[in-house]
């Protein structure tokens, strides 16, 4: 049995991890620490057995130390982060505060309780990072490996790179037992509709433009969030302290191919699902037209990285990790989840589809 502290556990990836862990390890206790900003939601983890939500800020070191000591925490899984590149361009300060200062606060608390406090617990601090810290690849370059030099290009990726370095330093300087995983683009249930796939799905249902940056040929590796959760579990169970592991989905696709697939899936749903036209009358597919007519090219994002790709051979060889979700099936199931859980996204604050 383990006692976990999951930061950012009411967000997209963290919430899916909490649900996954509760199913896989029903005897463990999970304390979720989340400040419930716009992307965090209580309903994301409702019904996750053994999980308790504490509303608080990871920058509150005293709070983290108290939770760790009182609950005998032996594992921290650190998801809490500002993660939207567009927001980091318009407002970098929040990314510095959460991603760098917040991670430093957690590391200080972990050191105080696990090392300085002499708790004697075997422990693990697992840090969730991103492939964006490696920068942008040319078409002919090999995929990112764990030894690829860091060259972040946005305030978001720069702040995550800094947090990665802090985690590594706490291992090498103080002996904190850490692992880090760098993942590719996640998609799946409970994702706040600011990222490409949920935004385009909901825009398509409401007949709103599908805004495509630049020429739409920026390439990403797509990872279903459940596969990501399996990869994190493998890091916790079999990862070597001090090591970094890349977790990818094995689906390297240009954005335009993803968008075309979204359009096809939405069109197919309106053909197959009775009553969908009545629920979403503004969708082109509700009127016998194609979703692709909503595609709209917009000015490219500042500093937009051209290509990301993940070499996950280390995770395969050392952890036994391999993705199980192909993109076509994963996207289809994701669309059905959003159609079946309209109440979840309608109740999210501060987005265009909110019921409020």
UniProtKB/TrEMBL annotation:
Q: Write one Gene Ontology MF term.
A: dTDP-glucose 4,6-dehydratase activity
Membrane-traversing stretches = none
> Which EC number(s) does UniProt give?
4.2.1.46
- Read off the CDD domains from this record: dTDP_GD_SDR_e
Question: InterPro entries under this entry?
Answer: dTDP_Gluc_deHydtase, NAD(P)-bd_dom, NAD(P)-bd_dom_sf, Sc_DH/Rdtase_CS
- PROSITE patterns documented for this protein: ADH_SHORT
What cofactor is this protein dependent on? NAD(+)
Which biological process annotations from GO are given for this protein? nucleotide-sugar metabolic process
| UniProt keyword NAD present | yes
Q: Which family does it belong to?
A: Belongs to the NAD(P)-dependent epimerase/dehydratase family. dTDP-glucose dehydratase subfamily.
**Entry protein name:** dTDP-glucose 4,6-dehydratase
Organism this protein belongs to: Aurantiacibacter spongiae
Lineage, opening ranks: Bacteria, Pseudomonadati, Pseudomonadota, Alphaproteobacteria, Sphingomonadales
